[in-house]
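To: structure subgroup
Subject: Chain for Friday's discussion

All,

I'm putting the inputs and outputs inline so they're searchable in the archive.
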Amino acid sequence: MSDRDFFREVDEAVRQDRYKEVWDKYGVYALIAAGVIVAAVAGFKAWTFWQERKAQEAGTEFSQAVTQLDGGEATKARDALNALAEKGPAGYSVLARFQLAAAEAQAGNTDKAVADYDALATDSGTDNILKGLATIQAATLRLDTADYAEMERRLKGMIDEGSPWRYSARELLGLSAYRLDKMPDAEKQFS
C-alpha cells in the first residue's frame, strides 16, 4: 500500500466521520423538514382536488338549473340558482346571480332585475368586466323609462376611452337621447 492510498483512506474515513457527525447532529431536523414538505405538497394537492370537485359539482348544478329554467320549472331552477349564488364557488355564484337577474327580466320583473344587476355591479367580489356587463344590462332594462340624466349617471364611468364597454355605453346613451328627442346628445354619442 502506497502513501497516497493510505492518505486517501484516512481522508475518506475522516470525511465519513464528519458526515456521520453532521447526520447525528442534524439528521432529525432534515427528516422533519422532508416530512413537512411532503405533508405540505399532499395537503395542497388534496385542497386543489377538493376545489376542482366542488367546481364540477357547481357546474353540474348550474347546468341543471338553466335546463330547468328553460324547461318551465322556474321555481326549482330559482331555488337551485339561489343556493349556488349563496354557497357556490365564486365564479358560479356570480353566474347564478346573472342568471337570476335575467330570469327576473324575462318574467317581466324589470325593477327586480335592475336591482339584481345593480347589486352585481357594486359587489366587490365581481370581476370588473362582469361589473360592466351588469351595468350595461341594468341600463338596457331602464332604457325605455329612464331619463337621460339617469342614463348618464348609470353609464358615466363606462363611456371613457379606456373602458371595454364604451361603445355599448355610448350606444345606450345615444338611444336614450334619441328616445327623448335630444338629437345633439344623440349625435354626440353616435359619432
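Points worth raising on Friday:
Residues 3-70 form the longest helix (68 residues).
Helices lie at 3-70, 74-87, 90-106, 110-122, 128-142, 148-155, 166-179, 183-190.

D.
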